[in-house]
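A reminder from the course coordinator: this example appears on the midterm review sheet, so study it carefully.

Given structure:
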């Protein structure tokens, strides 16, 4: 009988320890930046009622939702993003301090067609300000994006900026009725993936005349920033943001955006946007909450990590959080190794004690394969002289010394 082969669902991934080390390092940096700007962490459930999710994103997005009936025959769904759950929280907890500044790092689920940079389970790292209509709030989000990317060693990136107000105005000037605005924007949003002729055909299929389509594209090409966008860029630059560019064809596909919209792209790899967000002033009220303005962004953890690896942005990053392997030389010296591991941990050094008595060569190969840079050996000679042998696996060198000196060397590395 053939042994059945285990499989993983398309669009979902396992993350082995070396991948998790990079992901956790990114999360740590993002969390540090978010908190430095005064944002506090929030978490929401993986499942939401369907009525919370539906009618907020637009037709295209709803096709990608995981919706189903639970065992109680309730209509539920996996969350599609973190913005709608945040808005639901604001509706449920009306006494939160305003402005409410929160960040959230959790997985979301979309039935995407799997391809480079597109997965069905992804981690979003969101940061949002609720309750402020000031352009300062928008600018601060842009500054956070730039600060995060700079700290992650990104240099060749561009923050594209536009406004739904600018776009709605262009559509109105082309003679298109307001009730068609959202469907027109969904077509314009495809200009990043399709050429102009293909988008023009789609607009024609939606009932626009050739004259109207020509006027619409002329308006897009001649579009200029409004006063709000100019102020946002000025404020963001004063806060340290870099690489912000006005882009009149930027739409952002979700229906809930009302004002400024922005996303970040890199030249390489061809992976799509690595951050995206904007102002969503009506969403909380739509969920039955108070009329609160809101603005924020998501930073895509998965694409960020893919870029870091592909661009080799962290060439010297360790592949393991463990700094030292403490070897076991003999049964008689096992207690010495046990005591040494405890001392190292008390000194704040991540160390691993080899769990059994094996040949020293096997223990060294284990450390090398796991990416542990240092090995400490306590043999009978070392125990007698109250010293240790510190081995640097990368440099292929070793020296015998007092434990205190070994600790200083490891900490300095």
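Designed residues:
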């Amino acid at each position: 009988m053939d042994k059945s082969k285990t499989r993983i669902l398309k669009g979902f991934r396992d993350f082995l320890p070396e991948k998790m080390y990079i992901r956790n390092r990114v999360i740590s940096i993002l969390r540090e930046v978010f908190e430095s700007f005064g944002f506090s962490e929030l978490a929401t459930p993986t499942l939401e009622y369907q009525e919370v999710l539906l009618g907020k994103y637009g037709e295209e997005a709803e096709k990608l939702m995981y919706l189903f009936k639970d065992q109680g025959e309730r209509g539920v769904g996996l969350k599609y993003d973190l913005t709608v759950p945040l808005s639901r929280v604001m509706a449920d907890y009306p006494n939160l301090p305003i402005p409410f500044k929160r960040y959230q790092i959790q997985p979301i689920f979309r039935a995407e067609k799997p391809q480079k940079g597109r997965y069905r389970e992804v981690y979003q790292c969101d940061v949002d300000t609720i309750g402020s209509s000031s352009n300062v709030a928008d600018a601060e989000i842009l500054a956070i994006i730039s600060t995060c990317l700079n700290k992650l060693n990104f240099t060749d990136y561009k923050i594209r900026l536009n406004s739904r107000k600018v776009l709605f105005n262009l559509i109105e000037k082309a003679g298109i009725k307001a009730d068609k605005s959202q469907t027109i924007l969904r077509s314009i949003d495809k200009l990043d993936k399709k050429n102009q002729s293909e988008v023009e055909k789609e607009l024609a299929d939606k009932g626009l005349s050739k004259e109207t389509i020509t006027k619409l594209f002329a308006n897009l090409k001649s579009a200029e920033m409004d006063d709000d966008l100019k102020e946002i860029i000025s404020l963001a630059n004063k806060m340290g943001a870099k690489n912000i560019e006005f882009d009149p064809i930027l739409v952002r596909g979700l229906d809930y955006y009302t004002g400024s919209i922005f996303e970040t792209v890199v030249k390489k790899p061809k992976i799509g946007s690595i951050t995206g967000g904007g102002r969503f002033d009506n969403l909380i009220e739509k969920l039955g909450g108070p009329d609160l303005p809101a603005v924020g962004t998501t930073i895509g953890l998965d694409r960020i990590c893919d870029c870091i690896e592909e661009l080799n942005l962290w060439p010297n990053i360790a592949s393991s959080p463990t700094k030292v392997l403490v070897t076991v030389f003999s049964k008689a010296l096992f207690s010495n190794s046990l005591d040494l591991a405890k001392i190292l941990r008390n000194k704040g050094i991540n160390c691993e004690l080899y769990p059994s008595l094996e040949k020293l060569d096997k223990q060294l190969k284990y450390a090398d394969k796991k990416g542990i840079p240092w090995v400490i050996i306590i043999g009978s000679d070392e125990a007698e002289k109250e010293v240790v042998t510190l081995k640097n696996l990368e440099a292929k060198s070793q020296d015998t010394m007092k434990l205190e000196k070994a600790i200083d060397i490891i900490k300095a590395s």
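The two ends are 53 Å apart (CA to CA). DSSP finds 16 helices and 16 strands in the chain.
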